[in-house]
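Case 223 in the screening queue. Each case pairs one protein sequence with one candidate compound; here the compound is magnesium ion. For every case the pipeline is the same: read the inputs, emit a complex structure as tokens, and attach any notable structural observations.

Predict complex for case 223.
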Amino acid sequence: MTKFADIKGFVFDLDGVITDTSILHGTAWHQLADSLGVAWSEELGNGLKGISRMDSLEMILKAGGKENDYTEAEKEKLAAQKNTNYVAEVDKMTPANILPGMKDFLDSLRANGYQLSLASASKNAPRVLGKLQLADYFPKIVDPASLKKGKPDPEIYTKGAELLNLPPEQCIGVEDAAAGVAAINAAGEVSLGIGDATELGAADMVFADTSLVTLANIEKKLG
Ligand code: BG6
Ligand code: MG
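Case 223 output:
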């Protein structure tokens, strides 16, 4: 088992970890599901966390038994419609939308010489980081368009460690989604989950909220 002293880098998810955009994604998908006549549930919403745009749409259509009702071109249009609504909300964001404690955590990682990369499934990640004024912290971003498979496949976290030139076991992956924790574990990194301990039970460590994520608390858990 990796010890705290072995850790050299952090590979971050974005939505729901650094900022509260998971709520905005959820609202935009909920609106689209309503317009398609697909019943929304908290379970459906949670299952979409960490999942790429087109895979999310497929999951919504499947939940409503409508997976065969649309052509690829129509699906592209539906996904674009969701994205337009989402981006309109993102454009209202400011650094006040950084989740509690996350700016301090990022500063402490920098001050202590850890390397950082971003492993977000979102094609809007650079835009979101810009709004939060955090782009400087993440010069190394995995391009989600380069991925063969999305989370829970390990590819995005494997690439996140590669960007840092670090072996996976020297990296902590930070996630709010079960699919993301599965991806981190499969990549051989240490998984840090933020949120509900039952939902994120597969993580090596879970913190109930972002304000608890500090180097001191991570050291306590890893030893
Ligand atoms: C993930 C979110 O980070 O990015 C998902 O958790 C979202 O909810 C996915 O669907 C893709 O985002 P985007 O911005 O490319 O549609
Ligand atoms: Mg997330």
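Case 223 observations:
- The two ends are 10 Å apart (CA to CA).
- The chain has a mean pLDDT of 97.
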